[in-house]
Amino acid sequence: MPHVVLVLIICAALVMSIIIGIYALFRSESSKKNYFLLLQAMIVVYLFGYFIEITSTNIGEAYAGAKVLYTGASFIVTFVFFFIADYCDFKLHRYLVKIPMLLISMLAAVTLWITKFDRLVYLDYSYNTNLAHHLNFTPGILYYLLHSYPIICMLLSMAILLFRMKRWKERYRKQLIILFVCLIFPLTTEVIYFITVFSGINADHIYLTPYSMALMSLCLYMGVARFNIFDIISMTTVSAMEYVRDGFVLLDDGNNYMFSNPVAGELLPAISKLVKGESIFSVKDWPEELCGIETDSIEFSTEKGAKHFKGSVSPVLARNQTLIAKIVLFHDITDRVILVKKLEDAAYIDALTGIYNRKHFSELAQVNIERALRFNNSIYMAMLDLDFFKRVNDTHGHAAGDQVLMNTAEVIRHTIRSYDLLGRYGGEEFVLLITDLNINEATTIMERIRENIENSVINYEDVEIRITCSIGLAQFTSGDTMETCVKKSDEALYVAKNSGRNQVRLYSERFK
Asked: Is-above-0.85 flag for pTM?
């Protein structure tokens, strides 16, 4: 009866391993599944070999089963180590680690089949049917290697899992715990078996590791089916994302970080510091514009506006249309934004002084006038002209004249309020629109502008240039339009220039 129970346990473990392998093959799209499939295949070979041994009827069948068992065992721990390292994003060197480990497994497997098995693994052996049909033997040199190598590989795998547990967040830490528990079962039974055989305590060579595989298969099934120990992203996607020029970030359904490509780390450096399972919202520069959307595209910029991006969020849906992940793509559009701004500036901004050109000033002035009229606010138009500006060009050159114009625009801009309008009307003429002031306050601002220009000094090629200005100020009255108010301020400017320059004149009906 115990023998039948043991056979049933091995059969259950064998069937479970096959089911898990098939499930992973057809249901998972993960890049992590490849080593896992190889691992499951070797577990099936291993369990099948042990099944042959414990159901054998003679020593020859038991001997053949042992050879199949050790063939699977030679590769299981190698693929366990590869799978754990790959799953934990732990890079293994191809030539220093992977190829040597594969060669060890292949050498052990080949040695089992092309040499005298009983001279390397067993010095002598006999057939035992006390509890289960198996071989009794005296261990050989290869036997100790075949059982010490798996212990070393499993300990290394568990060390990698423990290292990642400290960094990954809770949701993905559970998956690591499942894998860790899966390794505990075979490691424990293998260590016990190795010690008891080496010390001579286990005279009947009771081998519990195959039965621990049943528990391991059960844990793996829970991990694959219930907790989805595989990632969503496929190997093809991972490879492609390495070369895509857009930033790529994969989030789970709870907006927790799963994967990103190198470009994402270059565009938003804080992303490269995230650990798996950490909220994407913890990224310092993560845009608020992307926080509340499930599927859309939007433009955003970094905190200081140094970089501009266009980002899009796309859902990843399961077969039942439930959300399982999100893909965030974004690319740098800084150059495009700068180009658009330059084009806009060319249309609206005076290239030399950086203030509004005449056309755009008129457009904005019309809007501001209409707004001021609705709120019954006062409106003033001012025209400013630099006195004897032609002398500057004739004496110092046009470059000096340009410097004077730029300085004048800067002085005016720092004197008026932030919401007052300033534009270059043409040549050395500037136009202003101010609102919501009484006549004395408006005149005071104009006087302050005149004084500041008079007191400013322009240093050009070690020469100090000073200049004054004349200003005409007109109040917007009933029946006025923007054009008529500009004309009135221009008439007031004419009076100021003809009255000795460097002064402010308020428009009056007697100017007509």
From this structure: no
